[in-house]
Amino acid sequence: MPQKPIVYDAPTPERPAASVEAIQGEILERLIYSVGKDPIVARPHDWLAATILAVRDRVMDLWMESSRETWRTSNKRVYYLSLEFLIGRLMRDAMSNVGLIEPVRDALRNLNVDLGDLINLEPDAALGNGGLGRLAACFLESMSSVKIPAYGYGIRYVHGLFRQEMSEGWQVELPEEWLAHGNPWEFERRESAYEIGFGGHVEPVTDPDGTVRQEWRPNDHLLAVAFDTPIVGWRGARVNTLRLWSAQPIDPILLDKFNSGDHIGALEESARAEAITRVLYPADSTAAGQELRLRQEFFFSSASLQDIVRRHLQQYGDLGSLPDKVAIQLNDTHPAISIAELMRILVDDNGLKWADAWKLTRGTFGYTNHTLLPEALESWPVALLERLLPRHMQIIYQINADVLAEARQRAKFNDGQIASVSLIDEAGGRRVRMGQLAFVGSHSINGVSALHTELMKQTVFSDLHKLYPDRINNKTNGITPRRWLMQCNPGLTKLIGDRIGQGFLDDIDLLQGLKAHAEDPGFQEQFAGVKKANKQRLAKLIKDRTNITVSPDALFDVQIKRIHEYKRQLLNVIQAVAAYDEIRAHPERDYVPRVKIFAGKAAPGYWNAKLIIKLINDVAKVINHDPAVRGLLKVVFLPNYNVSLAEVIVPAADLSEQISTAGMEASGTGNMKFMANGAITIGTMDGANVEMHKEVGADNIVIFGLSTAEVNEQRAKGIAPAAAIEASPRLKEALDSIASGVFSPDDPNRYRDLIGGLRDHDWFMVARDFDAYVAAQAEVDALWNDKKRWNAIAIRNTASVGFFSSDRTIRQYAKEIWGVTATPA
To answer: Which SUPFAM superfamilies does the UniProt record give (predicted)?
Structure first.
């Protein structure tokens, strides 16, 4: 029986205005009564906890009112399912969005505590890896800012991805201990705990009315327990919820084993359950790793869907209105098993007819595709799914039969097209294609940049697009300007406000007003002064973390992102080697002093990516210590890249490296963050670079390299890279020096195979784009030497970033996919 709807009419207790005195009193109260410390002996971490709790109290009132409003109005809710939420530190974000930074700063100053020190002490939430997770975090903040009722659903990773350290230039993975001392932002919701099953078997059950239904009887059970974190919108417009699931055993200890002396075996169930939420992206190079990854994905998908259905039934009493009141967005293929799980919940647990359940499912789900790389679209061995999720495999087979029948009968597909759209890949071992499952089970499939969306139609989903031509649409990614301009670059924010007024804080499109001042010498000088201060801060951080001294007067050339061959950090470091050779061969020439800054993590099982990190560090060691370079070129790799590190690097960047192989980067969001902070982009016509080129104008971005069509042509014709290498003496010399061990005298063969791959096939077009990249870097040098022009271009980049606000993206999702009304900011 559905529960009666809850009526929320209790008033929220009124809190004193946020005066310095009130905030000071609240921090002291929290320090004494929640942290348990006398102010006389309190340490910085005690003050951090007390300050977070005082700020959180202010947020709680808004959070509860937001929830009450949604229940009162019966507004449609959005549920965003993502395996990553790279939210970073939350205290400054929350304070900024509810206008508490200055009163909290002054209150702490009265207590002889520095707010900046506390902000830097807060650990980063280790809930993501890169762009996918940071996008999800931006989207949650924007949904709160434009007043869309929403939940984010993910996993409460104990250790996240990993903490990256360097050992003799090699990446070393260590556990990230962000939860070691608790998380004051989260609330455990014991009432929101759901049983998750694995394995077992499926039995047909005949109901009293003669209906035969399938009943899954798992043999392995655990609990998903909810932990909620408030996500505050700009000016406190709304506070939404990030709900993260923690895996816990049904029975924490097997007493019979313990009492028989098997003290370790008695904890086996706990260890098996808790392993699911220990680490983000467990290595899937082994069968055990693949199984754990699939368990993770089903665990959080099932818990989220059980929670969504429970909430819907509690408020509305029936499931027929599900698509009218619920929009579920799948962030990439990781939650794609949700399609089968919702069908199981509707058909098996709630008795709906298959056709009705399929209509509700498809009307409720939307799917965001983030990649064209086949290996990233995810597929699982049929045998693994049949063993771990037997009922879901049955459902997938039935969905597949319906889709293939429709393709054959309505669309008249041939055998090749049937194989293309099938949810089961029969080539080289039968596997379930999760991208296909997400596509057929959703009413909307969106790409994340204009180019990416068109390539989806032409490549990975070409036949599904022919079968369902109205489903694919584009939603170009965005970033929240609160985090990536106002908070990480307060100096620039103040300068902009002084010049064009404060309106841009609420309407980022008003940044266009800066264009009128791009050529103003006085404003240019101020703009450059802000950049210089940010570079000095980064230079200090580089010195502290790597013991490398860099000059803030040099051009800061930055590439920070996940280490991957298609992102082409290798192209960047080879160009650094070529520049090094040129400086030594022609010391009489004038050179632009340049600091090449890298940061990013390589997947633990991705050998070439880890080798590229080692190469960067080896090249840095040689170049940085060669007196012949005279400080004209420095190379820096900053370890353990995360949101907080990015917040220091991005405002200090002069040049933004967005140099992926054309056609391989879905969108990128780092490119937008750099643009907002006045960096000039050097990049290929790939991902959102294409739209950035349109927004900022061809004269204000440096584009080079093969187009997507040219890349595809070279690959299709099997054109070898040998000719490009032979035609470029600089490239040949750089490759020879790397391959022969100039930068690895301890192991001369270390990079032989890495460079050999460029000579043999060069799938990512590093060699073939090299000369164009060098020419583009020469263009950058010329711009740098014309400071008036450089500053004007930098200002125009900041002025043109409005289109890339995640507020714009979310409003498009709301209107065109979710059917939710977003209140204008």
So the answer is: UDP-Glycosyltransferase/glycogen phosphorylase
